[in-house]
Amino acid sequence: MPGELARYIAVKGSVCVDGVSLTVNAVDARGFAVGLIPHTLAVTTLNERKVGDAVNLEVDLMARYVARLLGAGDEPARAAAPPLTREALARAGYLDDAAAGYTDSGDRSDATCLEAPVSEDNQ
Ligand SMILES: Cc1nc2c(=O)[nH]c(=O)nc-2n(C[C@H](O)[C@H](O)[C@H](O)CO)c1C
């Protein structure tokens, strides 16, 4: 796991692996652990992953907001989090779209996920 992502991953928090939302069960210095239920294995490509494969990781938006709020003066943390707006929260599923006055256009070009490739080299 790239070091810059480790700060955003916490037990019981969410992480996206190859686009699949998962719950973090454990974290240590080497990385994090998740459990995979049969449904997830059946309907995603995660059952094709082998030890050492590179995967796409996306960390939780709320974790990045917290890091941003706590990270005054920490430029990487501040840059990683988008501005905290009702629309951004609605896009991420934390607010009802209508209540936020936001209509989903389906356009994810301004998506707020922080992505990083993971390989054996940077674990
Ligand atoms: C939050 C979450 N956590 C897990 C998990 O820890 N393990 C797991 O196997 N599946 C989880 N899921 C469900 C998957 O995101 C879902 O099965 C896929 O996205 C396919 O719909 C979800 C939604």
UniProtKB/TrEMBL annotation:
**What does the UniProt keyword field contain?**
Repeat, Riboflavin biosynthesis, Transferase
Q: What protein name applies here?
A: Riboflavin synthase
Q: What is its EC number?
A: 2.5.1.9
Q: What is the lineage of its organism?
A: Bacteria, Pseudomonadati, Myxococcota, Polyangia, Nannocystales
Q: Name one Pfam family in it.
A: Lum_binding
Protein's GO biological process: riboflavin biosynthetic process
Q: What does this protein do?
A: Catalyzes the dismutation of two molecules of 6,7-dimethyl-8-ribityllumazine, resulting in the formation of riboflavin and 5-amino-6-(D-ribitylamino)uracil.
Q: Tell me the GO molecular function terms.
A: riboflavin synthase activity
Disordered as annotated region, ranges? 101-123
Query: What superkingdom heads the lineage?
Result: Bacteria
Question: Lumazine-binding domain: which residues?
Answer: 1-70
| Keyword Metal-binding assigned | no
Q: In which pathway does it act?
A: Cofactor biosynthesis; riboflavin biosynthesis; riboflavin from 2-hydroxy-3-oxobutyl phosphate and 5-amino-6-(D-ribitylamino)uracil: step 2/2
The UniProt entry annotates Lumazine-binding repeats at 1-70
Which reaction(s) does the protein catalyse, per the Swiss-Prot or TrEMBL entry? 2 6,7-dimethyl-8-(1-D-ribityl)lumazine + H(+) = 5-amino-6-(D-ribitylamino)uracil + riboflavin
